[in-house]
Amino acid sequence: MHEFAEFKGYEAAFPEDEFKQRQNRARAAIGLAGYEALIVTIPENIYWLTGRQTAGYFAFQALIMPVEGELTMLVRQLELAGSIANTWIDDIVAYQDGEDPASALAQLLQERGIARPAIELAGWFLSPMLAQRIAAQTGVEAMPDGSAILPPLRVVKSPAELAAIRLAASYAQKGLIAGISACRAGTDENAIAAAMLDAATKAGSEVMAMEPLVSSGPRSGLPHMTWRRRRLEDGDPVFLELAGSHARYHAALDGQPPPPAVQARLDAIKATAPVLDDGDLRQWEVDGYLVLRKAITPAEARATETLLWRVTGADPADPETWHPREAKGIMIQHFQGAELDAARRSARVHKAFAQLWGTADLWATIDRMSFNPPEALSRPFQGPQLHWDVSLALPIPFATQGILYLTDTAADQGALQLVPGFHHRLERWLADLGDADPRRVDLAPQAVTIPGGAGDLVIWRQDLPHGASPNRASRPRMAQYVNFYSAALKSNPVWR
């Protein structure tokens, strides 16, 4: 354990599990690329993997990410305490000012037995000269470039990332409203910029990666101009731009309506006849979940099932292939494909969520798949057990979650389990717990499993405890996570 161990994770932007999931995806990608480890040098990627952030990112820093084993971070001595506070990493090593970071990095690689790593060469803060020194110190002419390994993994945002982006957008909205309100003849550009920064910061924004853009009159048509004391006159055009920032995730607003094709689809969904009947809605009100039968067609379910077999590399006829040694839980990190889009673009699915949210103005999430094989003596059920994917700090905003069964799924086949109706007593239950950790309370005796047929979609409220269940049948549970959300959804920034 490193120095200042008591500060570990004190300022982490996300829970440790969020970073673990990202790291697991990164390890798999590094292994597929044929390397035993990747030296991460691009600050954005280091942040995405660990939460490491600083205004001093110009100083050399590196994250050694092996396919197997613990991560190691190398930072400047001045940055050590901050690195400990905003990450969950145990192995953080500092080099001194005046010390060659290339030598320090090479020594770490040698001590950890890493002989053939790739390195990110495309970042702004790794000069060609330093890259050459690192290669020379490790005894090679040049190290392979791994700059293309991680960026594709960051394209699809997790629910936690989306929540941060939505909060950032709300800060930008407050800043722009204040900026527009400050625009009047006689006011100067500095006062407008100050109003924007003041409102966005008070709303919750952290430091932005780029300052607000404010230009007026003859300057308004010049790109990327900032404030310069010019006073507004009657009839002046004014250009304002601002991105809010939450946990280093940024969002700007352009104020434009949806494209015509998107708006036409939303209007069509709104006009579509209901797909949930009164019985469905009563169950939703009482239990907090429902099952949309035949959400997609049998052919679409079979096509998505086939995709999942292919992605996992498992053979439907060979149970020995259902428990690959490298598997890390039941979550399959595959997000894109025409088969997956069948449910995301289904008018029937969209309408069901629209009835629950009270609006058709919803957007499909891009989520992963799930392969829950039967338990084996050597591979017992790995979870996830009952849990919440949302902060339990009150108030908990309304939102939904969903899982689509790709094959007929019996109750003992690893089906979804949840605690029906828990949302009605959740607030009182939390109050009775006091300062105790609600996530450590065993609610399993209250849970029920939800079976379903191929193409059935289970939808539940995000404030219900839920999870997978042990598969004690003879076939895997195969599923796709499907959900819709409102752009107006605001997450509680306090995590409990």
Description:
This protein is α+β, with helices and mostly antiparallel strands and 496 residues long. The protein folds into 3 domains: 151 residues, 3-Layer(aba) Sandwich (Creatine Amidinohydrolase, Chain A, domain 1); 94 residues, Creatinase/methionine aminopeptidase superfamily (Creatine Amidinohydrolase); 227 residues, q2cbj1_9rhob like domain (Jelly Rolls, Sandwich), CATH 2.60.120.620. Helix content is 33%, strand content 15%. The protein contains 14 helices and 20 strands. The chain has a 6-stranded antiparallel sheet. Helix 7 runs antiparallel to helix 8. The radius of gyration is 25 Å and the shape is globular. The two termini are 26 Å apart. The model has no long low-confidence stretch (mean pLDDT 92).
Summarize the structure.
This protein is α+β, with helices and mostly antiparallel strands. The protein has helices at 16-32, 43-50, 80-85, 101-111, 128-137, 151-155, 159-182, 189-203, 260-271, 278-287, 298-312, 338-344, 347-357, 422-433, and strands spanning 37-40, 62-66, 72-76, 92-95, 118-119, 213-216, 238-241, 243-246, 249-252, 289-292, 331-332, 362-364, 369-372, 400-405, 416-418, 448-450, 457-461, 466-467, 477-481, 484-486.
